[in-house]
Amino acid sequence: MNKYLIPILLICFLNSSFAQEIKVDAIAGFNASQLDGDRMAGFNKLGLLLGGSAGVNLKENFKVELRILYSQKGSRFTDKDPVDLNYRLNYLDFPMVFRYRLDQNFFELAENIELEAGLQFSYLLAAKEGDPLIGFIRLYDDFEPRIYGFILGCSYNYDRYTLRLNFQRSLVSTNKSFSYLDRTLSFSLAYSLGNE
Predict the structure, then answer these.
(1) Which of 44, 81, 102, 109 has its C-alpha lying 20 to 30 A from 162's C-alpha?
(2) 8 Cβ neighbours under 8 A, 6+ residues apart
């Protein structure tokens, strides 16, 4: 993917005819992640999730949103795992999601619930391997600097707040030598900074 694609998409997005309708949110939360293929099981690696988003309504119940997120991912061993290594991977994530708000005809509070799906580009900021007791070594060159994936989720809106649950999965390996696919559950709270 061309390194200029994300800035170009962002400029087009912000210069669209919907520019006066942009809704901007601040986002904070945490990730629970794992790497498929590293012989460790479970979403045991917790990490920080911080960033923001800008979204526009395309129709009454349908919107598109671009997010920029600092995201800590990786994997962490437990007593049940055959290996005792932790991977700490820090990314800058750029998810573009389409969000659909349920109609009130489903049930009483349905209009506060949104379903979302989209694609995500992630840029690797740092990669480390090791153990908290022994120390960590930097492994940036062992991991792919750019990965792509998909994102699914749902959210509940109340006033200016949005409580969100997302599932992310990389479509390509995060590691250059081994097939490590990232899977992440994200729990976040967004706060609307603009006019409702």
Answers:
(1) 44
(2) none
Give how far the C-alpha of residue 74 lies from the chain's centroid of Cα atoms, to the nearest Å: 13
Of 96, 16, 52, nearest to 192 (Cα)? 52
Contact in structure between 145 and 172 (CB atoms under 8 Å): no
Q: Alpha-carbon Rg of the chain, whole angstroms?
A: 18
| Residue 85 token pair | 């290594």
Tokens of 62: 């349908």
Q: How many CB atoms are closer than 10 A to CB 140?
A: 12
List strand residue ranges (DSSP E) for the chain, in order: 23-36, 45-59, 62-75, 86-101, 113-131, 135-138, 146-158, 161-170, 181-192
Q: Give the dihedral sign, CA 44/50/54/60.
A: positive
CA 3, chain centre distance (Å): 19
List the structure tokens of 158. Answer: 């109340």
Query: Mean pLDDT in each 10-residue stretch from start to end of the chain (196 residues)?
Result: 57 54 92 72 80 90 93 74 70 95 70 92 89 67 89 93 95 81 92 76
Question: Using an 8 Å Cβ cutoff, are 122 and 145 in contact?
Answer: no
pTM: 0.80
Q: How far apart are the first and last CA of the chain?
A: 35
